[in-house]
Amino acid sequence: MAFALPNPLPSSLLLLLLMMACSTSAQTYRNHSLGSSLTAQDDDSSWASPNGHFSFGFRRIENGGYLLAIWFSQIPKLTIVWSANGDDLAPRGSKVELTTDGQFELKDPEGKKIWGADVALSGVAYAAMLDSGNLVLATQNSEYLWESFKFPTDTILPTNTIDLGGKLVARYSETNYSNGRFQFSLQSDGSFVLQTIDFPLDSANSVYWSSETGQSGFQVVFNQSGSIYVAAKDGSILKTISPITKSTQDFYQRAILEYDGVFRHYAYPKRLNISSMSNPPDWTPSSNFIPINICRAITQDTGGGACGFNSYCKLGDDQRPRCICPEGYASIDPDDERKGCKANFIQQSCNESLPGKDHFYIQPMLNINWPRSDYEHFQGQTEDWCGNACLGDCFCALAIYGSNGVCWKKKFPLSNGRLDPREGAKALIKIRKDDSTFKPSGADSKKKDRSTLILVGSVLLGSSVFFNLLFLLAAFLAVFRFDYFKPKVVQRYPVMPGMNLRSFTYEELKKATNGFKEELGHGAFAIVYKGAVESDRGKPVAVKKLNNIVTQGDLEFKAEVSAIGRTNHKNLVQLLGFSNEGQHRLIVYEFMSRGSLANFLFGGSRPNWYQRIQIALGTARGLLYLHEECSTQIIHCDIKPQNILLDDSLTPRISDFGLAKLLKTDQTRTMTGIRGTKGYVAPEWFRNMPVTVKVDVYSFGILLLEIICCRKSFEADAQNEDQMILADWVYDCYKERKLDLSLGNDEEAMSDMKRVERYVMIAIWCIQEDPSLRPTMKKVIQMMEGTVEVPVPPNPSSFNRSI
Length: 803
What we know:
The protein folds into 5 domains: 25-149, Bulb-type lectin domain (Agglutinin, subunit A, Orthogonal Prism), CATH 2.90.10; 152-292, Bulb-type lectin domain (Agglutinin, subunit A); 327-432, Hepatocyte Growth Factor; 499-591, Phosphorylase Kinase, domain 1, CATH 3.30.200; 599-803, Transferase(Phosphotransferase) domain 1 (Transferase(Phosphotransferase), domain 1). The chain is built from 15 helices and 43 strands. A hairpin with a 5-residue loop joins β25 and β26 (321-324). α9 (609-629) packs antiparallel against α11 and α11 runs antiparallel to α14 (753-766). The chain is globular, with a radius of gyration of 32 Å. It starts with 10 loop residues before the first helix and ends in an 18-residue tail after the last helix. Its main location: membrane. Residues 31-150 form the Bulb-type lectin domain.
């Protein structure tokens, strides 16, 4: 029996199918054969996935070394999903190579191994960066011998799984990719848990969240649909960690254990024309944070809790924890708030010869507690009794008083600190009445010892005036010789005594700025230039060349510069040094890469509402520090968007603070072009009233309105005359309950109208013409954070106006 053969395919169709097959294969792999390498350098050095969504290669971390990493290629904000050497950044010139014998290693320029893939089997033929974000080492038959998905750092991607014993380790901070303080793991008993780490060791400390799936748990799965769950061995879902919220076809997705200890699931739209957007969106987190409140979740027997020792954790409006120092305490490291806090005073001593309880007072703080730091408790007592009991106990750092009459004494170091209205307790913090310190040793005691030695010698030789004089002369020469010829520390670059401020020569700064060539900005009293300090590895700096300086000597100028240099806060631009030669007065600051808030707010497309909220809060915190927390109170006198600079992460940094005393009198009263209206200048400037910190509060109120509405305080070309002055217009909108009119088409802000109204009310309080009605910056922050209710503000122009 004969069978009829099917008609052969047309040659054109056959060719098309072959081309499609080749195309599909090319989109899946882009192989890098044995001998391929990448070098850490300034230019892009990476391998891209076929669809271009991911890249593998080197990324420079701030001004430090290079991180060998995988990141999203199509998203403007650098988003790293895997890294090889977070604990040991590679120097420039380092190389990662797939060697001819199949090893995949990262080595520094001298050939020292920094990292290597643990390939258990031989036979590696190529490396490939896959469209899933997985980097693989494979055989000629495409069998994976090693893959980055099997060794995740802090992030998992769709199609990735974590098996029994697998884990994620949070990075140390947002920009520090070394191992941090938290880990995510699938335990051998089948439970998925979040744990603290015995930092700086990598051993687990205590569990603060558990899926409680028991021995049935087999894998944590992040499936192609975008759902994350704990699966049993048969693939059934035991517990959903983050349900499907957005399609992976339309959104990039990632889930990360962040440096604050919270596991978050993020999405980012794929089909955006980012090249045409001046301010593209950021990643959007799902509402399924684990845990929901990290501040309350961690209560451990050892360790500092969600934040460091002696600090407390507070959940912000963005659901991110902030680590705050209580009254009387300051951050150990302003750049790392999780290191904890230290007392700004000498703590009470149990030595009876030193000052006791009369030198201390109790500062109450509501709804704050440090669980498990207690060593004594009493019942049925009053708040006054509880506070006095702590004052009279040299071991007591503070007491917690509950409404039920329970008093708990707490000892140092304080741990597991948290602020939460549900605590329902009051912290009674013991603080020294003044910051005077005692000097049991030091320079004064040494001088006293030498004087005593001379006096004793004089008494012993008192029988002879000649010998007495001879001894005094010999003692004087000995002391002079000791002080004059004792070794001096020679510093390569001179610094201001007691501070880390470098004294530059004028020629150094002229060279650093290439002859003051690249201007960053200018004002009535100074021009700012961009520069690079060769002696500090080319670190970029901003050099402010001051004009109109008050005629004064070197000592006065250095005294004012040192007052600025003693400030240390993450929301202030850091002063690095100065130059004071002849008529030249220059101040050197750290360089802020994102420019001024003015450019950010008014430079084109409307910035993200959440970013604006954080900028407003950060600016307020910087002003609070200047007004109340630094050693010398500083009134800025010129708060405006041009003087708020932004760093890489859009953290606001107040600049030009403390310069008022360096300028001529007429320059300290900076005027806008609209004299007598609600510009940035407080009305008291024009009324011969005392100038206090409340002038900065007024300026901040205007700035806050600009941030809310994303428009300048005065616009001559406004649609109608009523809208020309922003403060007047917004108050009218508020009074008529039509605040949405002041927001333009800002959908993000309009979806958060409760906060918009609260912030507008705060701004109206700040711009009251009567300075006594304006709140302090501390009160402003409390109202912005929602810990203090905002009362209905009066008309800001109700004060007797004379201009």
